[in-house]
Amino acid sequence: MGSRVSHQSGLLALCLAGLAACGGDSSDSGGTTSQNRAPTVDAGAAQTVDEFAAVTLAGTASDADGDALTYLWDQTDGLGVTINNATSLTASFNAPDVLATSTPEILTFRLTVNDGTTTRSDTVSITVNDVGLGTNSPPTADAGGDLSVLELTVVDLDGTASADADGDMLTYSWTQTGGPGVALSGADTATPSFTAPDVGPGASVALTFELTVDDGADTATDSVIVSVSETLSVVSVAGRLTYERPGFNLRCRGLDFSNITLEPVRRATVLLLDAAGNELAAGQTDDNGNYSFPGINANTDVRVRVRAELLQTSGQQTWEVYVRDNTVDTGPSYETRPVYAIEWGLFNTGGTNSVDNDFTATTDLTDYREVEGMWHPFLVTVKVSGLAEATGVDDAEMARLRAQVDEMKKQMEQMPEAQRKMMEQMMEQRMSGFEEMLQGAGDGTMTIEVRVKELRVNSGPLGGA
C-alpha cells in the first residue's frame, strides 16, 4: 500500500535531486513516494419490494491503488431490520412488516469502504409496501355527525365513512345506548333507520347510538347523538341577503367582473312568497342585510324576493327610492311602472325555526332579461323629505346619509373619465342639491330622477380591456 508523503519530505527530495545535478553524490539520490488515492463506492440501485420479502443489497467498490478494502453496511433510516453479511459487498435482510396506515415505508442503507487510509460511503433507499401479510391494521368507525330531527320523522343513520386501511371487508352493528327506545331497521348495515319518537310540547329528547365495525380481526366504535324536538305549527324564517359588487375596470369603460366583493343588501324591501306567488310576509333588511319573518306556517314551500326599493315612510325624515322598468318611452307613467326585483328558488320552512336562509344576488347577466340587445334599462327615482328639520334631531342618521353621498362621489371619481362625465350629465345639479339638503338648506324636500335608457355591456371578455 502506498503511504502518504509530507510536504517537507517532498521538498527534501527536490533539494537532493538538485545537488546530484550539481555534482553531488548521485549514488545516494532517492525517488519520491506516491500519494494514496481514495476508493470509490456504489451502494447499488434503489428498490421497491413487498413486506417480508428477502432483499439483497449489492454494492460495488474499487481502489485505484489496488489497496485491500474493507466493507460495512449499516441502516440509517426506516423500520429497523437485521442486516446479514454486513461486512461484505453483498448483504441481505428481510423486509419488515408494514402497516397499511404507514405504507410505503422507506428504508435507507449506507455502504462504507476503507482502504486502510481513506473512507468513502454511499447510500441506497429500499421502498417496502404493505400487501396485507403482517399485522392487521384496525378499522376506523364513523357514525356520522350529530343530528337534529323532528318528532315522528324517519331518521337515517350513516356509517359509510367507516374504513379499513387494509381494505378488509367490514361488518356493522348498531345499538341504541341512550334515550327512549326506538326500533332500528337494518342495524347490521352501514345505514340503518328508525322513526323518531313523539315528544311533549316544547320538549326535546336525545337519542344516542353506537356503531361497531369489525374487519375480522379488530373492531372500532363510534357514537352519534340524535336530538328530537316537537314539530312547530309556525316557525321563524331568517337569513342574510348579499350581492356581488364588481369593481371599476380602470383599463376600459365598464366594470371589472373579475374583481367581485360581497356586500350586504341594506334596507331593501323583502317579501316572502308561497309557491303560487302569494305574499305571506313583508319586511326590510337591516344594515347588515339580515331579514326575519316570524309566524310562518311550518312545512311550507316559500321563496324570498327582494324589490329594488328603499323606503322609510314615517319619522322626522323619510325617503323613497325605486328602480323601475325603463325599457320603453311610451306606456304607463313612470310612477306606475313595475319595480325591478330578484328572487330565489323555493325552499321548505320545515318544522323548526331557521336562521341560515342566505341568498346572494349574482352578477350573472343571464339572470336579467334582454331587450333589443340592451341589458336592464332602468329608471331611478329618489324622494327625500324632512332633511332640514332632521338636522340636529338624528345626527347618526344624517351622518349615514352623508356617508352614502360621499361614497357615491368617491365611486364617480374612480370611474374612467368618459363614464364619469356620463354620470355627471345624468345627475346634472341634483347631487349638489342633495348635499344642500343634507346641510339643512331649502325646504327639506328633494326629488331626484335618473333615467337610464341604454346600459350596454362591454363586448370583450368580462374584466378584459
Decide which structural class fits the backbone: mainly beta
User: Radius of gyration from the CA trace?
Assistant: 42 Å
Distance between the first and last residues' Cα: 78 Å
Biggest sheet features: 5 strands, antiparallel
Could you name the ranges where pLDDT drops below 50 across 5 or more consecutive residues?
1-30, 366-376, 453-465
Say how many strands there are: 29
CATH class of the largest domain: Mainly Beta
Q: Tell me which oligomeric state these chains represent.
A: single chain
Domain count: 4
Coarse morphology:
flat
Task: Write a brief structural summary.
This protein has 465 residues and is mainly β. Helix content is 13%, strand content 39%. The strands form 9 sheets. Strands 17, 18, 20, 23 and 24 form a 5-stranded antiparallel beta sheet that branches. Strands 2-8-7-5 form a 4-stranded mixed beta sheet, with no helix packed on it.
Question: What does it look like?
Answer:
With 465 residues, the protein is mainly beta. The protein has four domains: 1-32, no CATH class; 40-129, Immunoglobulin-like, CATH 2.60.40; 147-229, Immunoglobulins (Immunoglobulin-like); 234-452, Sandwich (Immunoglobulin-like), CATH 2.60.40. 13% of the residues lie in helices and 39% in strands. The chain has five helices and 29 strands. The protein has helices at residues 7-21, 387-390, 395-414, 417-427, 430-438, and strands at residues 40-42, 47-50, 54-58, 60-62, 70-77, 90-94, 105-114, 119-129, 147-150, 154-156, 171-178, 193-195, 204-214, 219-229, 234-248, 255-264, 269-274, 279-284, 290-297, 301-307, 309-312, 318-325, 341-343, 347-348, 359-361, 370-371, 374-375, 378-385, 445-452. The strands form nine sheets. Strands 17, 18, 20, 23 and 24 form a five-stranded antiparallel beta sheet that branches. A four-stranded mixed beta sheet has the order 2-8-7-5, with no helix packed on it. A four-stranded mixed beta sheet has the order 9-14-13-11, with no helix packed on it. Strand 13 and strand 14 form a beta hairpin. Helix 3 runs antiparallel to helix 5. The chain is flat and about 110 Å long. The two termini are 78 Å apart.
